[in-house]
Amino acid sequence: MSQRKDTTVLILALLITLGLVGGGIFWLKDQIFPSDERISQPSSTTSKSSSQSISFGNTTLVPGQASDAKTQGIEALAKGDYQQAVSKLEAALRSKPNDPEALIFLHNARIGDRKSYTIAASVPLGTNPDGSLEVLRGIAQAQQEINTQGGIKGIPLRVGIANDNNNPETAKKVAAELVKDSQVLGVVGPYASGVTLAASSVYNDGKLVVISPVSTSIKIANLSPYVFRTVPSDFRAARSLANHMINKLEQKQAAVFFNSQSDYSKSLKSEFASAVSLEGGQVVSEFDLSKSGFSASKSLAAATKRGAEVLMLAPNAGTLDKALQVVQVNQKRLPLLAGDAVYSRKTLEVGQQQAEGMIVAIPWHIDSQTNPEFTRNSRQLWGADVNWRTALAYDATQALIAALSRNPSRTGVRQALAASDFSTMGASGTVRFLPSGDRNAQVQLVTIDQKQPSRSGTGYDFVPVAK
């Protein structure tokens, strides 16, 4: 009987993996996966930087094949033929309007050699193109809005794109390049918490502000006077999930699945355990998804034996497939809680009925209506609903724009963001920062619900949990 169970789990794991490999479909609503607009790897350097990892428009950093129009626009921009670059990039966007890199380069081409204020994005285009494109859409939308309005007190905003591959060492090199470029007055990124932690000292030494829209680890708080973030820390997400477990589900014992190699995952796991304990519950077992011998069925059996009443999933993107194996093996026996890395089309596509009812803590949901104007504009610009990564990247860019309007220098930007009276309107509401560099904001709990038709095209969607 045991051998038959193990065989069944192995087959199930293979099916999940195959499902994940085929999961790069365009998600029209809560998440955009433009699989048909991946662009070739860079082969030349940018005029603004000596690094092949950074581009202001004369090389593309998004993997895949570019359209002829986009390729020609980038080549024209590299030669300084701004009129031709604008014409070709406009044509590229008419055929693929949801390409944020093309939109950013278009605005850079329109600026040409004129005076501008410059910021950059540090994103993992080489290893996580989908997540990177989500971030770039938020930056591109903010750039378009401010430049269409005439710029920052008449000065347009130029944006550079850097590929850090979610690699700490690469991110430090990118940070060093950005610090060396005196034109760069602020950075949006990095993506993963471990990458932000690694690159922070370089930004601090270079006195260059960096605002992460995605990194949630509690270690980032008070890390440096030059490190901020628009996403709430894991402390907020953990408290919300623990409160839901104890007071809504009325359960007190949880098992946590996490990745010991991820700063984000470890942070969320630890904060959840503390929050549950404060509420009178306890984490009865922890399982490391990164271990080579991890078995979803054996781990679930062990968790049940130790009295677990709830399963908390805290994977990072790299271990999401193993977390989804747990979802399938669980067969809806125990309630499921999860961190924001689980907010993915993969979860809906692979989890299906077994994931229904799962509670996920995210920073923002498009149905929250915190800023209806942003929601309306983003739908019009991208032709689809955007997710929280786009919204929080938009907020980070808006914060830099507001700071530049006060004092357009590196020191001035930091002073503006740290000022007690600083605030600006973002997609997820008012953006202001605590002395720690953290944002004073709440999280949104969503659940997976069956929908026909569904936004995701899977038959299931993430919907806000009624408060």
Question: Percent helix among the residues?
Answer: 40-55%
CATH superfamily placement of the largest domain? Response regulator
Task: Count every beta strand, where a strand is a DSSP E run of 2 or more residues.
Answer: 15
Widest sheet, order of strands: 8-7-9-10-11-14-15
Q: DSSP strand (E) fraction? A: 5-15%
Low-confidence stretches: 1-51
* Topology-level CATH name of the largest domain: Rossmann fold
Which architecture of the largest domain per CATH? Answer: 3-Layer(aba) Sandwich
General description of the model:
The chain is α/β, with parallel strands linked by helices and about 475 residues long. It folds into two domains: about 1-30 and about 235-360 and about 445-465, Response regulator (Rossmann fold); about 95-230 and about 370-430, Rossmann fold (3-Layer(aba) Sandwich), CATH 3.40.50.2300. It has 15 helices and 15 strands. It has helices spanning about 1-20, 70-80, 80-95, 100-110, 130-150, 170-180, 195-205, 235-250, 265-280, 295-305, 320-330, 345-355, 370-380, 390-405, 410-420, and strands at about 55, 115-125, 155-165, 185-190, 210, 225-230, 255-260, 280-290, 310-315, 335-340, 360, 425, 430, 445-450, 460-465. It has a seven-stranded mixed sheet, sandwiched between helices. A six-stranded mixed sheet has the order 1-3-2-4-5-6, with helices on both faces. A two-stranded antiparallel sheet has the order 12-13. Strand 2, helix 5 and strand 3 form a beta-alpha-beta unit. The longest helix has 20 residues, at about 1-20. The chain is globular and about 70 Å long.
